[in-house]
């Protein structure tokens, strides 16, 4: 596998807690409840050749955009979350978990919407099954969210769009335009192959599969650079941060190409690592750091979070240990 050839990102610098505490990030996007059922498997079902799980413990965690906001708070920034949830038990659970995480919640409630749940069944730390419950928010609720966005914009430094293709970012193009007009940096964690809707974003943070879906398969690092440069130019995106799993991450901007080698101590679970990356970059931009320094810290945070089970966070002491 070809190793990216480029400048490296700067070394990690310690950011004072009081500096990070002034960073104000508004996360907008799709939220979900990550529900985990843990149990033992001691037999196969007589009804079908499937394992029978004796569930002994349940754990709920914030997922999607809510996990992004939780990550920003965990490293010391302030985070608000604008999203849509239903009037149901999972929705109330999300409200409670946001409160425990010190995320400022700006929730639009849709009584007809089942709150998105990703239910994972695990035995001996191995995932056996995932069951998804989801639907799309009503148009009226999304318009109310757009109006709330206008009101929240002046009191935040950085806007972060967390797209999980659940319908919460139907008006993302207008939000990006409004935020950039107000002089705010806008970060986007993309989904799907229609990136025209992200036109004008400051930074977009795809993984390899997400980028390949938009620009096709690249044959070399030079080919990748050419394709990304064209994409950025066509969509007026200032920078693209490509997360490359075991290869680390690469930042493409007008200042050139910078690569950060993977910093993982132990890879246990990569789910949610992208949330940690974009949340860290946003928090650091809000604290006044240059983008390249924010990427270096995000790479360090990703290396820590993949050593944890499920959607997890990295706190300030872990990041700057």
UniProtKB/TrEMBL annotation:
Species this chain originates from: Paraburkholderia acidisoli
Give the matching Pfam families. Answer: PfkB
Q: Write down what this protein is called.
A: D-glycero-beta-D-manno-heptose-7-phosphate kinase
GO MF annotations, alphabetized: heptose 7-phosphate kinase activity; heptose-1-phosphate adenylyltransferase activity; phosphotransferase activity, alcohol group as acceptor
Q: Where are the transmembrane segments?
A: none
Domain annotation Carbohydrate kinase PfkB: ranges: 24-313
Can you tell which superkingdom this protein's organism belongs to? Bacteria
Keywords from UniProt, A to Z, are: Kinase, Transferase
List GO terms (cellular component aspect). Answer: cytosol
């Amino acid at each position: 596998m070809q190793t990216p050839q480029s400048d490296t990102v700067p070394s990690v610098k310690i950011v004072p807690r009081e500096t990070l505490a002034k960073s104000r990030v508004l996360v907008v996007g799709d939220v979900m409840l990550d529900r985990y059922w843990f149990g033992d498997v001691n037999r196969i079902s007589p009804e079908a050749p499937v394992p029978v799980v004796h569930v002994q413990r349940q754990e709920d965690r914030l997922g999607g955009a809510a996990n992004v906001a939780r990550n920003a708070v965990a490293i010391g920034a302030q985070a608000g979350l604008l999203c849509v949830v239903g009037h149901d038990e999972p929705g109330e659970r999300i409200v409670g978990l946001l409160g425990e995480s010190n995320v400022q919640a700006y929730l639009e409630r849709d009584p007809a919407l089942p709150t998105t749940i990703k239910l994972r069944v695990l035995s001996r730390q191995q995932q056996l099954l995932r069951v998804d419950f989801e639907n799309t928010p009503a148009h009226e609720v999304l318009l109310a969210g757009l109006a709330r966005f206008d009101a929240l914009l002046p009191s935040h430094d950085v806007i972060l769009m967390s797209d999980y293709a659940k319908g919460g970012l139907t008006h993302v193009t207008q939000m990006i335009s409004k935020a950039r007009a107000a002089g705010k940096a806008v970060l986007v964690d993309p989904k799907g192959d229609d990136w025209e809707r992200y036109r004008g974003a400051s930074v977009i943070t795809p993984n390899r599969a997400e980028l390949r879906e938009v620009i096709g398969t690249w044959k070399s690092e030079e080919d990748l650079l050419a394709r990304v440069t064209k994409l950025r130019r066509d969509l007026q995106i200032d920078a693209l941060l490509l997360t490359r799993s075991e290869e680390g991450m690469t930042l493409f901007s007008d200042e050139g190409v910078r690569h950060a080698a993977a910093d993982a101590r132990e890879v246990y679970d990569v789910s949610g690592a992208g949330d940690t990356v974009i949340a860290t970059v946003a928090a650091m931009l809000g604290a006044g750091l240059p983008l390249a320094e924010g990427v270096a810290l995000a790479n360090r945070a990703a290396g820590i979070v993949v050593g944890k089970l499920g959607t997890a966070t990295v706190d300030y002491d872990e990041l700057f240990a």
